[in-house]
Amino acid sequence: MPEGDTVWHTAAMLRDALAGKTLTRCDIRVSRYATVNLSGWMVDEVLSRGKHLFIRVGSASIHSHLKMDGSWRVGRHRVDHRVRIILEASGVRVLGIDLGVLEILDREHDQDVVAHLGPDLLGDDWDPAVATANLTVEPARPLAEALLDQRVMAGIGNVYCNELCFVTGLRPTSPVSAVANPHRLVARTRDMLWANRFQWARCTTGDTRPGRQLWVYGRQGLGCRRCGTPIAYDDTGDRVAYWCPACQR
């Protein structure tokens, strides 16, 4: 599931593949931008902001959001109906697949679409004091809801949300006011994403062995890694919630 660390890693991959190279092919398979051709222009930079990714080419910026199923791939992968954009430069092919958002923006104003976001957990604008203030501004708000709000901190998705609730000892439905040390929670959030920014296989437990990387996410019915209690889950809302009934009060 793409979250801030995945997008940061993807941006680094695309930067290595495209930055400083002139596009020889630009095939956009979204009707609104199908006539846009950036061939002949150099890719100046690739950057991420929370879960958003920008490829700056000439005076334009290719803005994408992976949503639930999107990805960018480098190499001679098969081109099928899921491909939304094909970029080629110096023998390198890049495909944007199942992108939830794909649009071409004016480069000078491309950051307007992310101006509403809170501090980027993996960005130069990271500010734990601001993030803490954002998190605690509504004390009665459910913790999971606050963590998933990109206006609080940019980059958290449902995996990290559930894992953070576990390590904090609170259920996803607990109010923000139940967090004893909001500063510590914010620091843990940053640490989790920072530790995973260079890898695709996300790990929050510190144990990178297959099947042992996560505390609760996706582990419904399995024993809690701390106490053995079966992990509970609720899939009736917008996001699936996972928790240990014993460890999370």
From TrEMBL:
User: What are the record keywords, sorted?
Assistant: DNA damage, DNA repair, DNA-binding, Glycosidase, Hydrolase, Lyase, Metal-binding, Multifunctional enzyme, Zinc, Zinc-finger
Which molecular function term from Gene Ontology is one that the record holds? oxidized pyrimidine nucleobase lesion DNA N-glycosylase activity
Q: What class of enzyme is it?
A: lyase
Residues covered by the FPG-type domain:
215-249
Q: Domain Formamidopyrimidine-DNA glycosylase catalytic spans what residues?
A: 2-96
Enzyme Commission code: 4.2.99.18
Q: Which reaction does it catalyse?
A: 2'-deoxyribonucleotide-(2'-deoxyribose 5'-phosphate)-2'-deoxyribonucleotide-DNA = a 3'-end 2'-deoxyribonucleotide-(2,3-dehydro-2,3-deoxyribose 5'-phosphate)-DNA + a 5'-end 5'-phospho-2'-deoxyribonucleoside-DNA + H(+)
- Key word Protease present: no
Please name the GO terms of the biological process aspect recorded for this protein, alphabetically. base-excision repair
What CDD domains does the database record attribute to this sequence?
AcNei2_N (cd08971)
Q: Which family does it belong to?
A: Belongs to the FPG family.
Name recorded for this polypeptide: DNA-(apurinic or apyrimidinic site) lyase
Instruction: Output the lineage of the source organism.
Output: Bacteria, Bacillati, Actinomycetota, Actinomycetes, Mycobacteriales
